[in-house]
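RETRY 2/3 - previous attempt timed out on the joint model. Re-submitting the same 519-residue input unchanged.
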Amino acid sequence: MTTLRKPARWERVVWPLVAFAVSLLLWAWLVRWTGTKVFPSPLEVGRGILELSRKHVLWIDIVDSLRRVLIGFSAAALLGIPLGLFLGWYPAVNQTVNPVLQILRPISPLAWIPVAILLLGVGDHAATFLIFLGAFFPIVVACIDGVGSVPLVYRRAGGNFGLSNAALLRRVVFPSALPRILVGLRIALGIAWLVVVAAEMVAVDSGLGYLVIDSRNSGKRYDLVIAAMLLIGIIGLMLDLLFRSLERVRSVRWGFRHDG
Amino acid sequence: MDSTTQQVAARTALHATGISMAFERNGEISDVLSNIDLDVEEGEFICLLGPSGCGKSTLLNILAGFLTPTKGQVEIGGEIVRGPDPRRIFVFQERGVFPWLTVEGNIAFGLGALSREERQRRVTHYIGLVGLKGFEKSYPSELSGGMKQRVEVARALAVDPDMLMLDEPFGALDSITRLTMRKELLRVWEAERKTVLFVTHDIEEAVQLADRVVVMSARPGTIQTIVTIDIPHPRDISSPRYLELRDGIFRQIGIAQQI
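RETRY 2/3 succeeded.
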């Protein structure tokens, strides 16, 4: 098999399924081989997922997690995109603010948990705030970067047609930066989904993160713990795929590589 | 004075005096252009010709208002140039086409102030003029280099400017497409009679297109000579007069016509 050859349609479906099946077999074998009493086998986890899906509370947990991500992520986008565009547009302001951004950016949202609870109390607001923090910085940085990388010819062409600064930003700079902004949003959404699970373990009593910690605390149900983890993975993948479908919109498609 | 003489007397479209340009690079000042005077008449096709690095592109950017010269000033239509203006449109190589807009969207880009019908009329007209009928809804990434270049020219013409400024517009195209595009540009120029300033490093291209060829020398860029090409269009590029003018410019630039 050469790397240049494009895989056939069936290959793109079958091989990932094979890899998935092999992982399950390896997992099952490891559980049997080590003779562990605490770690569940794939079969037990499968039963766990069925058990969870029959309970009404699983759907409430999923909806709660998605709602928190949606609110935190949207707030981050709503504030982060204009701020990032502004900073990208005025490099002098960016240079002034950049050190502050660069210090805040590497702080894990999890480190904010005590502060979030102190300020907002235990509850939804704290969780949403943590998601907001996790998503905010990648969005701002992507927008600054996006505006900075708009080719000079586009700006000049726009200016040549007599556009005002506001029109130049709206009609040239923003659409030109949009592919990079979308990449930033996608990364931010991934981080938001990571953070929601952690936030729900400490700040609230619903959601998939709470499901993980609650399954352990109330009766050491590790089959349900792993089942919840798998669900988190699957939903995260679906969110990412959903977001990636935006890259196929024709007015941004030029900024992405597509294979077929 | 009667009206006939007024009509016959060509009007000056562009009047540049004493243009000098210096850039600072690594703490050293390098002179790119030195004391350039240039007058261009309305409807005239001018080629700025010179080796790469002679500052011809910088000169065009100054004339367009994108750069401010260190010394001297440019007047267009009697007004001093202080910045870019929709009355003179700069055509970059095909790189200036906006990839997020369709062919239609690109050509309509500068027409925001017009009514919907007028905008549509102009877009249709210029799509036809540059031969892109059927590609209205295509995105630039689906077009060839030559087609993208046509989009840029159409986008420029659509706002009905007095002047077109083209910076090596066909430089990135293959030689066959380049020949076709020259023909197309001449056809469009004859139809619309805009003043054209055309930067090129290709001697043949300059002699085929221009009314006058402004030959520049390098470091710092100055105008070495201006050659009037007194051959009517369409030009026979094997005629003795064509060869004479072309060879004259070859000699001016100081290169032999033998390989």
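Strands of chain B lie at 12-25, 28-41, 45-49, 71-76, 79-80, 88-91, 163-167, 195-200, 212-217, 222-228. Closing ticket.
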